[in-house]
Amino acid sequence: MTSIDNSGFLNVCGNCDCPGFVPAVSWSYNAGTKALTITDASTFPTGNGMLALNVTASDGAGHTRTGRITAAGGAVVLDLSAGGLVLGPNGFNIAATVITVHRCVADLSAFNLGVAANGSGSLGNTLAEGDIDGSLT
Length: 137
Fold this sequence. Notes:
Layout: E1 25-30, E2 35-40, E3 50-58, E4 64-69, E5 75-79, E6 92-100, E7 105-113, E8 119-122, E9 124-128
Antiparallel strand pairs: 1-2, 1-8, 2-5, 3-4, 3-6, 6-7, 7-9
C-alpha cells in the first residue's frame, strides 16, 4: 500500500539541471527621463528558449512598475516617473525572473540603485530552480 501517491509530482520541473541556461539581465537608467531599460542577455540552449522575462522596479515604499520581455535579447522600458514611485535617497530596486520554455527559472535582482545620475549594470543571480549553487552550468 502506498501511503502518499507522489507519481504526479515526478519530473515536475522537467530537466532540473537546466544545462546551457545562463540567465543574465542588464539595466540602464536615464536620470533625465527617469526611464529604466531592462535588457535580456541570457544564454539559452537549443530547444529551450525564452518563455518570458518578468521584471519589477520598486521604491522603498512598495510602489512598483512592471514589464515583460518575451523574446531572447529583447528589452522593455519602464517609466519610473509614473506609477507613484518615490525615487528617494535609497533609489530603486529591480527584480527579474527569467523563465525558459522548459520551465527553468532564475530570479535576479539589484537593490538601492541611485537615481541622481545615469547608471547601468547587471542583475545578480539570487536563485535558480533546480540548481542549488546558482551556477546553472
